[in-house]
């Protein structure tokens, strides 16, 4: 039979536990200090890097041989992006619900130098159709390595005036379609630790706009989804799969016909060609966020630090309450 532990034995064990606890506490404090120092040093480095990049842009990456899929490629920004990619030696895969639009885009990109162009009729709001067409793309073209989720719709109606069916369609196209395309094409990217995910969102996904409740909500969700997946990729060591989130103000593509801006020098209605060029530049330089125009960086930053009442006052000053007053865009127009 083992002897019962005496007071001396208990004091000895207690002392040992105290020593171990103090050692662990010291290690934690050391880790805290080291990690804090690391954050400070890297913060200085990354800020300096950002300043340098203002004057010395990063070198464009080579996308020759990449398979680029663009949703909503039958018109607007989708068509322009396809045209910009045409001379870069990529294989283009065009998706849209408009067959004639895709055929026209295909013709235009071939005139611009594209030699490998494939187009598929696909309703991105239909999960089963996305998966079916995605499988067809994998068989006929290969694994997509640059995915550009561009398709989008806007109802342009006040929340209580928007039919339930249109609200649901807004989310199916602007948000849920991103889930299904990621599910279809991301596995191959992660397996190769190579690829690029591009979300064409909106500045309306960063700040609410009067008269765009469903559209804003769908774009907020799309941005949150893209950011979360980007963090998952980094957390799992898949840093070879890049992400870009694009948040432009209203673009003059017809989707937001009639929308106006109170101060065009501060918040201009954007030229589509300019936007397409900036998106291509962001993709080729692995830019994580692209806000257009540049004043949006200041506006969004200001939103997060000023009192709510002041934010409303500035919103009224900028005309945010009246952007949609003369809206006459087409409900099912694809960006």
Automatic annotation (TrEMBL):
Keyword Flavoprotein assigned to the entry: answer is: no
Pfam families reported for this sequence: adh_short
Residues spanning the membrane: 305-324
Q: Which GO terms describe its molecular function?
A: oxidoreductase activity, acting on the CH-OH group of donors, NAD or NADP as acceptor
Output the Gene Ontology cellular-component terms. lipid droplet
The stretch of residues making up the signal peptide is none
Keyword list, A-Z: Membrane, NAD, Oxidoreductase, Transmembrane, Transmembrane helix
Protein family (similarity comment): Belongs to the short-chain dehydrogenases/reductases (SDR) family.
Protein name in the entry: Epidermal retinol dehydrogenase 2
Q: Which organism is it from?
A: Oncorhynchus tshawytscha (Chinook salmon)
